[in-house]
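Extended Data, record NAD(P)-dependent oxidoreductase
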Amino acid sequence: MKIAVVCAAGREGSLLVKEALQRGHEVTAIVRDGSRIPKATHALVKDLFDLTYDDLKGNDVVIDAFGAWTEDVLPQHSTSLKHLCDILSGTDIRLLVVGGAGSLYVNPQHTASVADGPEFPDIFKPLAAAMAKALGELRAREDVRWTYLSPAADFQADGPRTGRYILGSEELTVNSRGENSISYADYAVAMIDEAENGQYIGKRFSVVGE
């Protein structure tokens, strides 16, 4: 497959590039900073907001690994995703989005989310709200072949790659030990599996480590 990873210089983005390369895919790493290009088949140095359809055409899948953490740029979760959706609107190119866990539901009625819980840190609530807003806007797009993958609540940057994980849907899922965690590396495994299999087009799903 031909896979483009947007924001490929980040910790998750670089692991997505690595995982796809290891499986023999043709990978284009798209980065804003030319000094931080991960090993890939091709590289494109360009800001996400400057990307055009011509930059992405020919790919089977585009993976959006964008992240914004400070309050002044949190709205870019929505604006960056809208930009990518607008570029890919009406095409067969699939858009896979590295999502957040705060919007996962904690009840069958889907009226309460992880971020609503009393134990959810206040410092992360603005980020969770921004990402939930972007997900809601993505759900309204019927012109894009999108997929949104939420990680476990405990998303471990330096955890090992085991190659094993448990799939969940819209609700917070725990493993046999009652844990809800996954490494960045195993999340990358799940994302590239979805890129290959296309089981969740037009849906959000989640993943947790075994």
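Summary. The mean pLDDT is 96.
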